[in-house]
Each structure stands twice: as structure tokens, then as C-alpha cells.
Specification:
Order of helices and strands: HHHHEEEEHHHHH
Structural class: mainly alpha
Number of strands: 4
Strand content: 5-15%
Strand order of the largest sheet: 1-4
Distance between the termini: 49 Å
Number of helices: 9
Shape: globular
Length: about 260
């Protein structure tokens, strides 16, 4: 009886679950619900989704970022990938986008000069941690995208890092955020490189829960998801699916959101 009660404990607390649902609603309202259902894909951490090889760290960083832009629906954004040690970040930098913010109606302008492009820094140490690099790229893009929202995310500025991570999961990068949120530091000292890791604002459980919500809204079967998660997160994912399944009213509300 005791074990049965323990198994019914929620994956995340009620406040976190409520915030994740509200943040998904914010993303659907501000970043094209129709595009979410019609075009957004669940990006797998595989060579099929990130093909190509080059002989330099910078070239690999560019290849990975180009694929991230495609999956995020912003391949038309004028950007420039730079080693973080070589670029000076400008917090207020604005990007000029032609056509739609995201999706096939965006217009690519190749004539934009480098000094007018959105600078995207990368950490060369992350090249051997591709999921961490992909998540970092997606989070940077979501930071800039989030600033274009017509309304603030739930919790306002205090929850900005979490909201922009959630937005990146909404864009299809849930695997990368769940799998790279925590890295075991045990074993031999030479096996762990702290500089290759990313800063995570959603816990791996929260990211997995948000991934489960993405998949439930997109009707993606569990069998297409769990093989790509770290083994210890697979049970968390299945429990998240069951918990979300019990929240029919909240899920139905999200499905009714139409783009502005």
C-alpha cells in the first residue's frame, strides 16, 4: 500500500505544472499556434537530424546552428556565428526580420552586412557535447524571439530564463534540454569538462515534463520519444504523460488557442 501511494506522487509540484501549461499557452499565443501544429518537428539528437561533417570546430558549430535555425523556423533570420572569445555581446542588439517572424513566409536577405547580423556566440568546448550546444543555440534564439512577444511570459521578468527555455522546447528542442540539464560529475576527473556544459534553468524533470506536454499536444507516441531520452528520464517521461493525461481541461484549453 505504501509503495502504491509513493508511485502516485506527482512528477512536478502543482505550481510548476501550472506554470509550464501557462508558459506553453504564452508560446502558442505569441509564436503561431498553427505553425506549431503544422510544421514544428520534435528534433531528435541523431545524425539524421544533424548531418554533415567538417574539419574545423567553427565549421561544425556553423553546421549545427544552421540546422537549429531550420527546425526553429527562422532560417531567414540574418545571423552570424562567432566563437564566444572573439565576439562582444550586445544585450540590446535588434535583428531586422523580413516577412513572417518564423515559418515559410519569412524572407531571406543575403545582402545584410555582417555588422547588422544577430551575433550568435558558441563555446568551442561544447563541440563534443552536441546536445548541450544545440540547447544553448536554441536558448539564445528563444531569448531574442521572446523579446518580440506581444505579452510577457507567466511570472514576468523573474522567470525569463525559464520561459525562454520553455519556448525552445516549444520550438522542438525538448530532447536537448532534458538530456543536457544535468551531467554526472563522478568518475575520473579527466572525463568531466565543466566548460562543455550549459547553464540550465529548468531542471531535467521540468524539461522532461515540458517535452511530454509538447508530445501530447502533437500526438507523438511514447515509443518515438523514450529511446532518445537518457535512461533515467524515461520513467519520468512516462509519468509526465500520465499526469498530463489527467489534466484534460488544461490540455483542451491549450488546443483551443488560435494565433493572434
Amino acid at each position: 500500500m505504501v509503495f502504491g501511494l509513493l508511485n502516485k506522487q506527482p512528477v512536478v509540484d502543482s505550481a510548476s505544472s501550472e506554470w509550464i501549461f501557462e508558459a506553453f499557452g504564452w508560446a502558442l499565443e505569441n509564436f503561431d499556434a498553427n505553425l506549431f501544429y503544422s510544421d514544428t518537428v520534435l528534433v531528435r539528437p541523431t545524425n539524421e537530424y544533424f548531418p554533415g561533417t567538417v574539419n574545423s570546430v567553427h565549421g561544425m558549430a556553423e553546421i549545427i546552428f544552421d540546422r537549429v535555425k531550420v527546425y526553429a523556423g527562422i532560417s531567414h533570420w540574418p545571423t552570424l556565428v562567432q566563437d564566444q572569445s572573439m565576439c562582444q555581446l550586445i544585450e540590446s542588439q535588434q535583428v531586422q526580420i523580413q516577412g513572417a517572424l518564423r515559418g515559410p513566409e519569412g524572407v531571406t536577405d543575403e545582402s545584410v552586412e555582417d555588422d547588422q547580423r544577430l551575433i550568435i556566440p558558441y563555446n568551442p568546448q561544447q563541440i563534443n557535447n552536441p546536445e548541450g550546444m544545440i540547447a544553448t543555440y536554441a536558448h539564445i534564439l528563444s531569448h531574442h524571439m521572446g523579446r518580440m512577444a506581444k505579452s510577457p511570459p507567466p511570472g514576468g521578468i523573474d522567470y525569463w530564463p525559464q520561459a525562454t527555455e520553455l519556448l525552445a522546447i516549444f520550438l522542438g528542442f525538448g530532447f536537448m534540454f532534458a538530456n543536457s540539464a544535468y551531467n554526472f560529475r563522478g568518475g575520473c576527473g579527466s572525463c568531466y569538462n565543466p566548460y562543455a556544459q550549459r547553464d540550465a534553468y529548468l531542471s531535467e524533470v521540468e524539461a522532461t515534463y515540458a517535452l511530454a506536454l509538447f508530445c501530447q499536444l502533437k500526438s507523438i507516441p511514447d515509443a518515438e520519444v523514450t529511446p532518445h531520452l537518457k535512461s533515467h528520464l524515461r520513467r519520468t517521461y512516462r509519468k509526465s504523460v500520465r499526469d498530463i493525461g489527467d489534466k484534460g481541461r488544461e490540455t483542451a484549453r491549450l488546443k483551443q488557442i488560435q494565433p493572434a
